[in-house]
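Researcher: I'm comparing several assemblies side by side, and this is the next one on my list. It has 696 residues spread over two chains. Same procedure as the others: predict the full complex and return the structure.
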Amino acid sequence: MVVEVHLSGNLPRSEELFRLIRKHFRGKTEWNELRAVAERETIEWVRIAGRGMTLITDPMLLWHDLFRPFAENVKGLSVNGLSRWYDNNMFYKVPLIKGRLELEGPFLDRYLFPSVLSGSRVKLILPDPLTMQRLSLNDAYSDVSELVMDLAEVISVEASRLISKWGLKVELVQLTAPEMARGMSEDELSLVREVVRLFKRRLGCPLQLHTFFFSAAKALRSLLDTGADVLGIDLHATPVSALRGLSVDRELALGIIDSRSVIVEDPVEHASLVGKVLDATGAKRVHLTTNTDLDYLPMEVAKEKVSSLLKCAEHLKGVLA
Amino acid sequence: MGAGDGLLRTQEVGSLSRAPFLKGDNPEERAVQARYWGLKLGVEGFDDLVRLIRNGASQAELLPWASLYGIRFHEAVGLDVVWDGEQGRVEMYEYPLRTVENFEFVGRVKVWDAETYNKAKVIGIPRLKHSAYLKEFLFAKSKARRELKVPVTGPYTIMDWSFDEFFAKRYAHLDDPLERRRRSRLDLLYALVENVMKPELRTLVEAGATRIQIDEPALTSKPDEVRDYVEAFNEMVKGLNVTWTLHICYSDYSLLLPHVTEMKIHELSIECANRDTADLGVDARSRRSYSVLRQFRDHGVQFKVAPGVIDVHTDFVEPPELVRDRLLYSAKMMDDPTKVIACSDCGFRTRRWEVAFEKERSLVKGADLARRALT
């Protein structure tokens, strides 16, 4: 029943790493020194995840916001001013689309530590092209669908280069797609179907569309029609009652751990919540995860949350066995 | 003419980075900084500060000097309305919470890139222990040669930037997580208004504050709460005879509408330059981030608008001509230049003093150019 347990985004950095990044921005720390500290922290996070996560994610400690590696490296894109990241006191730098998108040299491994992940079953986290299009400033494309497909092309090709170069055993790719929970037009839905096909064909593994911050209740019908293998929903934004009557024939990734609250989830209570979702939707297989990035929390609290997720998974496995 | 009456009045938004003589370990270098800025800003008695630094004075002993330098900084640049650069504050969230009961700091979290803040959780009904701002206001009042505007962190932002471990439990029985959150947040907001903000603002007014800026950078983060906030704000300022500025930044300001029209404020200060182009011109393409002012005009707002014409997140010093064009376009959007105030996007906490000084000087020069073009 519970098939996988994994995280769904960035993890917090230590204060030392924050300081080093700031120094690096000011030109006072060498890139190698920064990488060394980030790598040490990545190893520690991967060690913690290894206590029970079935899929391991890179903590993305040098990945400043969802779009940044692409905004900084893809020809035709650049980084513009700050904008609020949904309803949070967190901001991202808006990608500015100023020309046709074109990939140059590989870049993702500068933001990640693929060597730390070698040998593990890996989940790779990438931006959803529709979300990126909606949250970018477009000064170049008159046809939005063309832009979405070009974004899908550059993101998937770059992911494929990373996987082949490092021989990663990627068993799930997550497209981080908060915009999909806000609703999609018919045209956008067809576009997302194409995007899903493209990623699955190119990367050759199951695909998760991960939504959060908004109730997925209304969007779930559309999401079921995208061809994605796993649908991620935020149980801290979606009432279980609103899921009743949906016939879910896909795997659900349930964001049971609230990455924006310091209240640590009770495993018994949350196992019961998962049971209610299964009853309401008829879903047969679930993944347990965090609703979003854990870097809304201080590092120590985030560690407690990871531990809570693992306890929830253990408890649920016991209940369902 | 009082500062409140001038065309395109210039003002700051709040913070400066720490005074250069507070930074670093080498007393001689810090003394050099104190002397350099003392001369540049015309700070009275700066030789005493230089001596104090050389004699190993503590940071606490130097803080009143930092406040004085902050005030003179804004005066020397030529702003009409000034403050002390928030030299005594760690930052806008942590500082006032240190004087509020039932908040506990839990650690640093990211805001963007590598910028962080020390985030607290609320563990009970918040209550003001003592004013966070009175001492600094009395000091500034005794030193300032221009009109003062006191920046005060607003209750919505305190609520929004904190974890809630107390009010959320009241509604744990509700099925809808978003409704649970909405109700608990409203409870926290009103608890802050009644038990923290009202006593704090009353204290400042009784001490002589006539201009207060309520900083609410978080306000539009949950658009369905703007209406609740407007009611809470009006309740908070009831009976206080003050010129109220509301400052918001890095937000979608159209989300304030229509409720903001009901708000008992005199000025709305917003960030715009950060997302504008650096091209000269008073056309929609060059001035793409100022069109929201037209929406305010169309809703018939009674307050003045202070669009940021200086970006506080880059070292690029906007030429006065760019400032001029941003102000002229703003005046065009409002259809009334008397409803426009010139200021920066936000405080200069992330910029060095050299950069902030040049940027603010450009603000003043640009406002002067715009005034000439308008009259």
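Model: For your comparison table: The mean pLDDT of chain A is 95.
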